[in-house]
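Quick one: structure tokens for this chain, please?
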Amino acid sequence: MKKIGILGGTFDPPHLGHLLIAEEVREKLDLEEVWFIPSFTPPHKEDLGTTPNDRMNMVKYAISNNPFFKLNTIEIERSGKSYTIDTIKRLKELHPDHDFYFIIGADMVEFLPNWFKIEELVNLVQFVGVKRAGSSLVTDWNVRSIKIPGIDISSTELRKRVKEKQQITYLTTDSVQAYIKENHLYEN
């Protein structure tokens, strides 16, 4: 069985925290690849302000220097609201010889009881919670805990900085910064 990590999200925009999480989990669980899966429309967010194509392109640029990172567009192609259960079921149909590890932050672990069809989902995929200093991964669900170095970066903060014409250097990759600038993202 091929061991594949999955990092899903809006990636609006992708930042170094996403890359660090993916690499730390890949190394610690000896994963063969980590697939970045940008959502078309996440169920918990409304207006993103960027297109799915913009977010897909930014992920492509962000991960381009790591041969273990792959872009998977399954949710972009499906369009509509993206529920993890639908994505995992489809991935398992397409790749029956893969074991999937769904990577989530400690903040998302506490929200697992609210996930759509969580009782079924936990039987289909191994959740991996990334633990940072000061966070806890206390849950009744089967979540494998991985400790990572602390890095406090959020997409929300990056969007705010761009809007306020502040630098985002060292918070995301140079190629993502260039894409944001060339396409005038987050300026309004």
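The mean pLDDT is 92.
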